Amino acid sequence: MFAARVTSSAGHGFGRLALTWGTLELGHGAGGVSLVLACEAIPQLLLVLAGGIISDRFRRNRVLVGADLLSACTWAGLAACFMAGAAPLSLVCGLAVLVGVGTALFSPAVEGIVADLVEGETRQVANALLRQAAATGLIIGLALSGVVVAAVGPGWAAALNGVALLVSAGLLARLGLQAHTHGRSSPLAELRVGWREFAARQWLWVIALQGAVVIAVISAFNGVIGPLYMSQGHGGPRAWGLVAGCEALGTLVGGRIAAHWYPLRPIMAAVLLIAPLGVPMLLLAAGSAWPVLACAMLVAGVCQTTFATFWATTVQNSVPNEVLSRVRSWDLLGALTLAPLGLLVAGPVAATAGTEPTAAGGGLLILTAAALALLSPQVRTLRRPSTN
Known about the structure:
Growth Hormone, Chain: A
């Protein structure tokens, strides 16, 4: 599992730059980038509940294998488009939709598979290790992707993502997980069970609502605003690859911290870690050079992984395993609600108002979302389960 996460995350690092810069090099502009990234995000929003049902019904590693194979084929198509140097925006958008479908299947399953593999207090260490694995791969991918895109073009970066996903699928297929044995009912009934478990926990849906704002802003910043700013004479794809690589390095450090830090109130600690995610945007708004942005992204990466580890572990320890993927799919649905809108408007707004004012607005939104989440009593008071 560790090796699979390293490999697929390295591919994701290549794909992240390939999709943005490939769309720009095809001549579709900032608006085209926004549309392509929104097309990737919308299926994640629409199909994540179905992904949760599938992940609770079948062996989760098989769901992950299927998602990786679908994504690998799609990235091969994107590589062909970018290498050809000419492709209609509609084709790129259609392939981006398929990438989103693969992610919608992958996300609920990967969140639930830790509960299949380990139990109790060791889950926090397992979550931290898997996030370190993802960070390691992402560092490799992002560090090399800027060089690859600048040297031979985004098509080759997209192709490398496809190869990495094929390797990941082969590794995941070797996991020996047992099939889930709980009784099955209709998909709607299973969704209702997941919703009841989700809605019964105030802290869960409050963080999902906070995530809707935070993920929308971060997606717009990483996918549109940051690359657009760098393309305006601030360092280009190589500099942005280094900035994004520093964020990934931070997530590696954050995984190390999260493996050893057990706060008494993990959800409150997680929310406090959200505020620093807005700092890189405020620094970009101030016209900071890319090395300054890289340092801020390093800190943001530390906070992201520590937040994600506390969050995932608390959910896994609080929700029954047989409904875990469905509950996580409801969580992801809430968290992803605004992501397509953020991606759609980021390009046009940045083109009209400028990248710096757009980034400033995003940073302030993140700070506001973090402050509002702390108004929830359960967020402030939920304690880590006591263990022997």
